[in-house]
Amino acid sequence: MPDQRPEECKRTSFMEFGNRVLALHSNSPITKFSVRCHKGVDSYLVGDWIVKGLRRGATDVTLILLFPSRLLHTCTHPNIFFHGQNLIKLKVGCGGLGPFQHSLFREDVIFTKLRTLHLNSIDISRHYGDVIFARLLSKCPVLEELIVNCIKWHGWISGASVSSSTLKRLTIDCEHYYHESDYMLRHGPDEEDSDNLGEPLVVPAHFGTQKPRFVSFDTPNLIYLNYADFVALNYALVKLDSLVEARLDVGPNQGQMRARDSDEFEAPWDATNLIMGIHNVQTLHLTSDTLEVIADFCKMVPVFHNLNHLSIESDDERGWHALPLLLINCPSLQTLVFHGLYHRVTDGCGDACDCISPWSSSSCLSSCPVKILKILNFGATCGEMSLVKHFLKKMPLLEQLAIVLDLDASLEEDLRLSQVFEDLRMAPRASPNCKLEVVNY
């Protein structure tokens, strides 16, 4: 290959290697099959590899196809998944819907054994994405886990919907980043791919502005939900009767924040059904943005009768407006975890913190049933120390306070671990039996 550049020689050698590997023991079964290809590799050949892998009974398949969109159809001939009846786990990453595009509309292609489906950075048709996505789920009659990363469902005409009676675990991570650096981090090439892609990544003009219109979850047997998105106009149907654990990172985009802060505009977005729909959870993780959505875009908050573990992520630009009501509405809460104690100081925090002196001596903390309080990423600043003492003074049923110091934080006045422990040990407590633990990880 004297006339080929070094990069082309490598790709040709790789394609020849792939052919030889699949030709060896051509009748022997395959359990796990993975193809990761960039542009420059013959897309027709890649399609042939996929068919051969499926014909040999592969049950765990990963397809990462970084081809330009105009070439994706060349590796997706109609029969590519005709032999996929043995699939149990399937991951498809990058580009268009690719290998699914033709298979979805064949009546004889059904993934009868598929239990785990992972779609990563897949562009589903903007105008008919809701139809295609629903068709895909309908062809997976025993699907138990669905992971969808970087899905662009904000343009789907009829809104976004996940409907499945068999799903037990669901992860939906939409493009809802606030800073361009986050977008670059999530969409940039991996280190191992950087030499091959070679194209500058451009942040789109609509970055940080697009949001879904309507979102529905019709998943009555779902046990675990991890959902990250901009807040939708409405959540028409939220059926999560079996939910045990939920992680929510739902926040307003730039336009929604401006509308929320305007005195002349009434925000039309409503996340009430989403929050009401998770009322059965036992473990709940909320980001600081989700806390603000609960405060600003929810008409009511349910009573979480089964909730025993609540985890809150903090941000110094986000307030704790919703925290007092959350604590009041969690009568069975046993463990409360804060990932940092920094937050935006407003009178909306109520008596959950000591940032502003409350007008009333009563406190949501005084009736809080929490027995275990954990504080991670603790910087031991004066404000943080004061807030921890506030917790100790107000929480009557507290049995354990565990604090993990932030290694990156510069402790004021060289306050050491032992000094933090000693200072808090001497603080007044509503619960005399509360055990104190301070560690430095």
Q: What topology does this entry show?
A:
Blueprint (H helix, E strand, L loop, with lengths): L5 H18 L8 E7 L4 H13 L4 E7 L2 H4 L16 E8 L3 H4 L12 E8 L5 H10 L6 E7 L8 E4 L5 E6 L5 H8 L6 H4 L17 E4 L5 E7 L7 E2 L5 E7 L2 H8 L10 H6 L5 E4 L1 H10 L11 E7 L7 H6 L6 E9 L28 E7 L3 H13 L5 E6 L11 H9 L9 E6 L1
Parallel strand pairs: 1-2, 2-3, 3-4, 4-5, 5-7, 6-8, 7-9, 8-10, 9-11, 11-12, 12-13, 13-14, 14-15, 15-16, 16-17
Concise structural overview:
By secondary structure, the protein is an alpha/beta fold.
Number of helices: 13
Which whole number gives the mean pLDDT? 79
What is the CATH class name of the domain at 303-441?
Answer: Alpha Beta
Structural class: alpha/beta
Choose one word for the global shape. Answer: elongated
Output the CATH topology of the domain at 303-441.
Answer: Leucine-rich repeat, LRR (right-handed beta-alpha superhelix)
Radius of gyration: 26 Å
- Most strands sheet: 14 strands, parallel
Sheet-strand content, in percent, reads: 15-25%
Instruction: Give the beta-strand count.
Output: 17
Alpha carbon gap, first and last residue: 55 Å
